[in-house]
Amino acid sequence: YESKQRAGSYTRYGAEFDHHSPERLHLLGDLRRALDHPDAPGVNLYYQPQVRLVDGEVIGAEALLRYSHPERGMVNPSEIIETAEHSSVMRMLTERVVDIALRQLRAWKEAGYDLRMAVNVSVRDLQSPEFTDFLTERIDAYGVNAKRFQLEITESALMADPRRVLLNVQRLSDLGVGISLDDFGTGFSSMQHLRRLPVTEIKIDKSFVTSLVDDPDNAAIVSTTIDLGRALDAEGVEDDKVRKQLDDWGCHAGQGWHFAKPMSADAFERWLADRRKDR
Ligand code: C2E
Ligand code: MG
Ligand code: MG
Ligand code: MG
Question: Which residue ranges does the record assign to the EAL domain (predicted)?
């Protein structure tokens, strides 16, 4: 039970995370093998709608990684990212995610849905120009509008290597790719980064959003962030009270279980069709 306790604390505190535990190395090897395969068995994306609050229109989707391990079943995406981030598997994974997301974006466009697609990237992806080159090439190959594609980047990612990351982010921004600052409020130098980065949207962290109706501190944080005047997407909208408060404050968009949980591409399309029928 000692190892169980230790495993728990590694999950909670990023700094103490053991990248070399046998379990992690095993997961890393299995992921690498899956990604080496052209169909990447078990690797999949779920999509969660992003809703414009003023009129309820679905403006896009966030692509979220799902990995079903042959023995363990579904593995928590945060665990996958933490495990892969310090190895070359991260790039393989991100390239696969981008490829699936762009193919889906194109399919939706062909089906008459004018949506944008948001994809999460890790700091590793933005430290070298290769990912930027890859993304540029793929956007072109799929013939999608770069403005319909958005990268979600966390503040902590930017702080790790601000100069190199900034260079790559700027290149993508020049292409028209949207830059969303994910988990906003959980980092440390928010205002500084906001000034220097070509950020098109702030995505305020769900830890502030979910409880804003009952927690005055979180309410103040969220309303102040809205007042920064940037397009704001609130994640973790779990009920209608929160949706309404955000809308009253002039928040641009919301995402969360109140609207829908992340879904497979098929389920997303069904959900979208049903919603349009009802409106
Ligand atoms: P994130 O980008 O901040 O994504 C939001 C997380 O909140 C997702 O968890 C989503 O399922 C969850 N969520 C959505 N609505 C609600 C809600 O109303 N209430 C609550 N409590 N949670 C909600 P998920 O899918 O487990 O992903 C966790 C994190 O893993 C993501 O956080 C992101 O940082 C990372 N991640 C996921 N997919 C990828 C990926 O393809 N690449 C990279 N680099 N990271 C990814
Ligand atoms: Mg995100
Ligand atoms: Mg987030
Ligand atoms: Mg998060």
Answer: 24-276
